[in-house]
Amino acid sequence: MSSGRVFRFGPSQSHRTNRLFVFLHGCGATAQSMIPIAFKFQARFPSAALVVPSGFDPEARGAAAQDWYPTRGLNADNHRERVAAVLPDVEDLVRREQTNFGVPASRTVLVGFSQGGTVALEVVKAPGIAGAVVAFSSRFARLPANGTHISSRIHLVHGGFDSVVSPVYAERAARVLVGLHVPVTLDIVEDLGHSLTHHAISLGSLRLLQGIYERRRATLH
Prior knowledge:
Layout: E1 2-3, E2 6-9, E3 19-24, H1 35-44, E4 48-53, H2 79-101, E5 108-113, H3 115-123, E6 132-136, E7 153-159, H4 167-179, E8 184-189, H5 198-220
Parallel strand pairs: 3-4, 3-5, 5-6, 6-7, 7-8
Antiparallel strand pairs: 1-2, 2-4
């Protein structure tokens, strides 16, 4: 069902909710564009509740397409500030849905594409918001500084031919995260531009599943 500009879907029948996935769409897209991707993740995680919100940019409201932060006049100097301005609202949204579904942060996953992935990567710089991020064709607004503690596992999936957000950003992010001892995976998909394909989505959900099992195995030893 939808409530305003947020679509919510419970887990598959006969499953009790024990995970929460929040999907953040790309620039100039809609929440509806992420719903098929959300169901592909739920096929691998049938006990997950799905939350698919629309972007917050007030300039885009009323139009079909939405953004998370304004893109008019966006440049390298103001990008960081514009992203930072929406993070409190994103955090409030995630925490509200965690309360709604009774799911803790450790079992919450943020899945973002492009601008939505940037928002997801930035919001988990604050601890205790989500256990993992799957970011497609995304970049940090600002790479994490030395000493930054990120408690989330980060899975980066990027097109090798992405001309909108260069894969160099994902490669740099992975190196920095490794240096910070953050669990991270990076998949560069050959022949993929700035888009989401079934293969890319499957890779992202697979890396997420592998990360969950690795963490579970680590806690058993």
